Amino acid sequence: MPSSKTIIIGSGPAGCTAAIYAARANLHPILITGMNEGGQLLQTPDIQNWPGEPSISGADLMNKLMEHAKSLGAEFINDEITGVDFSKKPFTLTGDMDSYEADTVIIATGASPKYLGLPSEEKFKGQGVSACATCDGFFYRDQPVAVVGGGNTAITEALYLADICSHVYLVHRRDEFRAEKMLIDRLEDKVSAGKITKVCNAVIDEVTGDDLKGVSGIRVKYKDGRIEDISITGLFVAIGHTPNTGIFTSQLENNQGTITVGVNPDFKTSTSVSGVFAAGDCADSRYRQAITSAGSGCQAALDVEKFLQLKESH
Prior knowledge:
It is a single chain. The chain contains 7 helices and 19 strands. The protein is an alpha/beta fold. A hairpin with a 4-residue loop joins strand 13 and strand 14.
């Protein structure tokens, strides 16, 4: 059974950065990659907000991070963790291929964006369909786009895009938005200025386009049965994220799946179980950026190093 002072679960920016710092601390970390080595970022064709890299693909960025961690001695194992036992130490992790033991664990399993579930939406992912306006909005400068959703995230993304794109259609299945009043006030200002059009009491029935140019429009269906075709080049789905934390929530404090961190005030990334830490989108329901995930991965590794030092001194 492979064992280590620290095992990292997840191979996105948080997991890889944690592996880099843990390896530099001579903790000889093991990183369990999960099903998708490199994480969600692999689905982003072009990244233009990673410091020092004006333009880089998600695949290239993650390959650099993984190779950096490996060059420092971090061990990568291609396995999917399906169960954990945090009730006793060393902690036991059960995977599809093997079981593992660790004195400390860093959970960096990320979160998956929710999508509408339309076949046409799936077809155009990465070709006009995105779940992150901050990541991809730049590519639609001076072009018409649509955002679907009715909460804080959807309105925030619509406001962000309204300053970049030629026009924003905000599609919501209800007639009232669930966002904070301040955001709704800002939304109404943009509507009055002609930058945003509210498309309420409507759902997206189909995403239209072609294989060469990608998305060219959406077909919306109103509650009264009306159908409308709207010409756009980009669709941003903002209906929420699901943290990839199902196997942990029965053993760790969480808020609707997002792991609660900072339980021990001495360790910002600590969870409700001493020796278990969390970083990245699985513990962050607000920012969900590659760079903030990497930063929290660094914090988690530094927390682990300090935690183990204190443990050894006692």
